[in-house]
Amino acid sequence: MGAVVLRGGAPYGLDPHDIVIDDGVITAMTPSNQSGSNALPAEGVELELDASGCTVIPGLVDLHTHLREPGREDAETIATGSQAAAMGGFTCVHAMANTSPVADTAGVVEQVWRRGVEAGIVDVRPVGAVTVGLKGEQLAELGAMASSAASVRVFSDDGLCVHDPLLMRRALEYVKTFDGVVAQHAQDPRLTEAAQMNEGALSARLGLAGWPAVAEEAIIARDVLLAEHVGSRLHVCHVSTAGSVEVIRWAKTRGIPVTAEVTPHHLLLTEELVESFDPIYKVNPPLRRAEDVHALREAVVEGTIDIIATDHAPHPREDKDCEWAAAAMGMVGLETALGIAVEVFIESGLLTWRDLADRMSTIPARIGQVADQGMPIAPGSAANITVWDPSPQGPLEVDALVGKSGNSPYLGRQMPGTVRHVLFRGRPSVVDGALA
Amino acid sequence: MQMLGKHLLSAGDLDRAQALMILDTTAELASVTERSVKKLPTLRGRTVVNLFFEDSTRTRLSFELAAKRLSADVITFSAKGSSVSKGESLKDTALTLEAMGADAVIVRHGASGAPYRLATAGWIDGSVINAGDGTHEHPTQALLDAYTLRSHICGGQGDLQGVHVVIVGDVLHSRVARSNVLLLHTLGAEVTLVAPPTLIPVGVESWPCSVSYHLDDALMQADAVMMLRVQAERMAGSYFPSTLEYSRLYGLDAPRLELLKDRAIVMHPGPMNRGLEISADVADSSRAVIVEQVANGVNVRMACLYLLLGGAGSQAGGD
């Protein structure tokens, strides 16, 4: 397509600029107040997008997404998940391996990757399983997945913990061959049998089996020591407790190459919501205490937790329309992640837009080793761009979610703005808040 | 009559006045139970559904009898195999009952919070009474226990101010303990929980009661001791080394009975494991009020149904 001009948006919330995109690349940027359209190519402009009053940031990169395909196409497909991602301002998602069949072979990851290319509105980067069938018994063919067309670099048994310490050690060592990273779902299985919610005063009162913080923290402690021992990169999925933050902070101080993510819901919601027994709030790891939320925010600000990742986990209605114990764990999050992050970090002044762009785009792209993603809003960068409109929104309605499932804990919540436009490799995927 | 809410889900929902109203109503209804014709017309034409996802013959019969004595139409829906085990879902069951026009649903469910879902998810309009949900609560059990305590220790009147109740056993998994701690505290009683640390929930510090690991010390202070059922399968979860050791440390046997004050009573929500948490001679002793608890259970449940449903739509008074 011809050139696209994004007019009047403020990169990183600073001064408004007109941005010219041609052939998938940012070719020019001029301050809006000095420009006139004559600063821009007069010919070949195919599309002009108004971004006045908006903030322009690199397209978001999610390191932790469940797209459910293959196997649970009733909950989400790669196509619908891609749409949800685009609407949320993402230009790249990492599709977790806990599908059916499990993404533990080159064949499955290539299929997921191809379906992503077909959908064509975000980069879908398959995550490979660490162990065959997520069973935690035997390493999956990590090398084959790495050298496949999908060129997998992130490996995870997410949903389940690679609990066997020897297997975890081997996985950490093995992925060094292709500079991969193991993303650990840190949950000691024995300490969390039948666990339903955070363990503490509230679980005691509600009579729901507890998921103790130590079950996460003990695994992270073990894994950072293993990573140090074998000199490998480790990534920790969905950190949820203050204690985990302390362990990771200690590991980073020691120079251990560990990165960590936190979900928007763990940055905002607390366990008190479980009192309603409404399974919309059932998620793994569970919602924790206000002290944990506070520690997690602080960790994001100081960089102990490197990135925000959605853990987008779609479930069909019937899996939430039931009693707590029977309900599935997880929340959808692609469409709301940026809004929640803005509420928590931008509106409070805890982070600048540039800081937030690092944590939701640049750093996750680096951890996942995705080319052309997370690049700065500057001439020469690949044109993966998200435009955030800070006009206040009405209460979030389920119809506003374009993914296949509506299990969002934020329904009815006032969002602080909306994604107005998204460019994926120079092409609009979202225009004026709707799929292009 | 509108002093109670629409539902009875947690003992913690009752304030002192509401709890006393239920106990006083129970006392009035108890006199009916003593008549030869044990029936009141209060709930004539109303439909009460016993919805039991878990086997519990005694609780089910108790509620059934209570509703029948108030002249309600009673149906029992034994939905063994909840949606946890992929039977019919709670929602579909609820919609079915709603279609049948249930005025009250008495629900026993293996999942904590299931009665809350029934009451709040918009599936049904009627009142919901929690007849035991998972390891959460069993409010009518706490009410019948409070009634039993009051009649033995407080002359059948007022609250339980200053009464010391010791609850012994598997507190972690006990809905009876949770409801009792809340209600007995509301009524002014002092509660001490006694159990091995493995069977006390993390977070118990926030409960309005004290905790001890030593039964003998606690017994000496008690006006009443309530023994909880210990399920032998807990052993598999490493909660205690053996049933023998449990029984030795936390079982109520004849020598321990001697430690109790003269007028102290022994309670058990049933069904008992004789020889495990309570020895046969204690269960059959004159201090045991276990059978009386069962009788009080019917009256307390009559009172709950009467107060929750007796208002709008019923014909007041007898004819």
Write out key terms for the chains shown:
heterodimer, A: 436 residues, alpha/beta, Urease, subunit C, domain 1, TIM Barrel, 2 domains, 9-stranded mixed β-sheet, 5-stranded parallel β-sheet, 10 helices, 19 strands, globular, B: 319 residues, Rossmann fold, 4-stranded parallel β-sheet, 11 helices, disordered C terminus
Describe it:
- The complex is a heterodimer of chains A (436) and B (319).
- Chain A is an alpha/beta fold.
- Chain A folds into 2 domains: 3-56 and 379-435, Urease, subunit C, domain 1 (Roll), CATH 2.30.40; 59-368, Metal-dependent hydrolases (TIM Barrel), CATH 3.20.20.140.
- Chain A has helices at 78-87, 106-119, 142-147, 165-174, 201-206, 213-230, 242-253, 290-302, 337-346, 353-368; strands at 3-11, 17-22, 25-31, 45-50, 55-58, 60-65, 90-95, 123-126, 154-155, 181-184, 197-198, 210-211, 234-236, 258-262, 307-308, 385-389, 418-424, 427-431, 434-435.
- In chain A, strands 1, 2, 3, 4, 5, 16, 17, 18 and 19 form a 9-stranded mixed beta sheet that branches. In chain A, strands 9-10-13-14-15 form a 5-stranded parallel beta sheet. Chain A has a 3-stranded parallel beta sheet with strand order 6-7-8.
- In chain A, helix 4 (165-174) crosses helix 6 (213-230).
- The two termini of chain A are 14 Å apart.
- The model of chain A has no long low-confidence stretch (mean pLDDT 96).
- With 319 residues, chain B is α/β, with parallel strands linked by helices.
- Chain B has 2 domains: 11-138 and 295-309, Rossmann fold (3-Layer(aba) Sandwich); 140-293, 3-Layer(aba) Sandwich (Rossmann fold), CATH 3.40.50.1370.
- Chain B is built from 11 helices and 9 strands.
- In chain B, the strands form 2 sheets. Chain B has a 5-stranded parallel beta sheet with strand order 7-6-5-8-9. A 4-stranded parallel beta sheet of chain B has the order 2-1-3-4, sandwiched between helices.
- In chain B, 49% of the residues are buried.
- Mean pLDDT of chain B is 91; it is low at 312-319.
